[in-house]
Design goal:
233 residues; alpha+beta; five-stranded antiparallel beta sheet; 11 strands
């Protein structure tokens, strides 16, 4: 396998997000006020703000359209907005609900999610504490029901072998549990491609296993990475 310098230090190689597709909506009523939570998978700030703008148009007669979003594998983009509610009573509790969401025991890695809570005021003041609970619990309740997936960064690695050895080696790799990507054929060699977790230890173990399976004749050549959705186990 190539030198470790090929694999720069990386932080998150896996995180949890909403399943791709439609928006997810959930509504609760708190002392006559309607709280409509909309969750949407978003990849960047422009998409998140576009979701908010669309909901403002859809629910144009609502008093508040509070929002929060967290973006990126490392969750380094975090924004919230109270939209007219008392400062700190809406957007921040919503953001907190996203950031503290456990996707597995002890794991808080939810990202690429925009949450908008549309409030129709019911005429009864909730107070600061009541608002914090209402907005936080609205997002939490929506997440309880939303479809989530794991998003993993995989590195596509190539293995160049003679045509005569390719079939056996591919079968051995599959039997060992490796995920095979596209295979291509060159004049003298077959290029097998493996989709591996983009983690230094996993890549090293794969290189060692490949060396054992090929009696040291094949080398793991790391290539580009790509993100894929994987159902939660």
């Amino acid at each position: 396998m190539a030198d470790d310098a090929v694999f720069p230090e990386s932080r998150a190689t896996v995180y949890t997000t909403l399943a791709a597709g439609r928006q997810f909506r959930h509504e609760v009523e708190v002392r006559r006020s309607r709280f409509i939570t909309v969750l949407h998978r978003t990849a960047d700030e422009e998409s998140a703000r576009s979701v908010l703008a669309g909901l403002r148009r859809e629910f144009h007669d609502a008093r508040h359209h509070c929002s929060a979003f967290v973006l990126g594998p490392d969750r380094d983009v975090q924004r919230s907005n109270d939209d007219g509610e008392p400062s700190g009573t809406a957007g921040l509790p919503m953001l907190d609900a996203l950031l503290k969401r456990e996707t597995a025991p002890g794991v808080t890695d939810l990202s690429d999610v925009t949450a908008v809570v549309v409030r129709y005021f019911g005429g009864i003041l909730l107070g600061a504490g009541g608002l914090v609970r209402a907005y936080s619990e609205s997002v939490t309740a929506a997440l309880d029901r939303a479809p989530l997936v794991q998003r993993r960064r995989l590195r596509i690695c190539a293995v160049m072998v003679p045509h005569t050895a390719a079939g056996r080696l591919e079968n051995d790799l599959r039997a060992a549990g490796y995920v095979m990507a596209e295979t291509s054929y060159e004049a003298q060699t077959t290029v097998l491609r493996l989709a591996l977790p983009d983690d230094r230890a996993d890549l090293r173990r794969a290189a060692e296993r490949l060396a054992a399976l090929s009696a040291g004749t094949a080398e793991l050549l790391p290539g580009e990475t790509e993100w894929i959705d994987v159902p939660l186990g």
